[in-house]
Amino acid sequence: MGRLKYLWLALALWGTVHPMYWFLSWFRANGFDLAGMVEAWHANAATSGLVWDLTVAAVTLTLWILVDAVGRRDWLSLLAIPTIFGIGVSCGLPLYLYFRARFAGAAAASTG
């Protein structure tokens, strides 16, 4: 599990950098217009489908994190929730898996 947590961290970094490149490119071309960006997300049925797919995934992931983190009393892993909505699921999911792997490693070390 030790090496896997670094893969989760690398994927969280990629899930931050890659989408942000495209978002910042859009802002450079269109100005900082959040309403315009949301409108662009719904430019056609295909993009609207992706937006709703990611919205349902984000809400589901958030609920899972809340239930799991509270049950394990791993408060630090709750930091993944703002990344889901501030950056995206592509960052929030691997970041949460990193936190979870870190917590699992600490629990194993304390019992072994």
Structure write-up:
The protein is mostly helical. It has one domain. Helices cover about 85% and strands about 0% of the residues. Helix 1 (about 1-30) runs antiparallel to helix 5 (about 90-110), helix 3 (about 45-70) packs antiparallel against helix 4 and helix 4 (about 80-85) packs antiparallel against helix 5. The two termini are about 15 Å apart. The model has no long low-confidence stretch (mean pLDDT about 90).
Radius of gyration: 16 Å
How many angstroms separate the termini? 15 Å
Q: Give the tally of structural domains.
A: 1
Q: Give me the count of strands.
A: 0
Structural class: mainly alpha
Tell me the major beta sheet. Answer: none
Average pLDDT over all residues: 91
Shape, per Cα inertia axes: elongated
Give the proportion of residues in helices.
over 70%
Compute the number of helices.
5
Beta-strand percentage?
under 5%
What's the short version?
With 112 residues, the chain is an all-alpha fold.
List keywords for this structure.
112 residues; mainly alpha; 5 helices; 0% strand; elongated
Helix and strand topology:
Elements: H1 2-30, H2 34-41, H3 45-72, H4 80-86, H5 89-111
Helix pairs in contact: 1-5, 3-4, 4-5
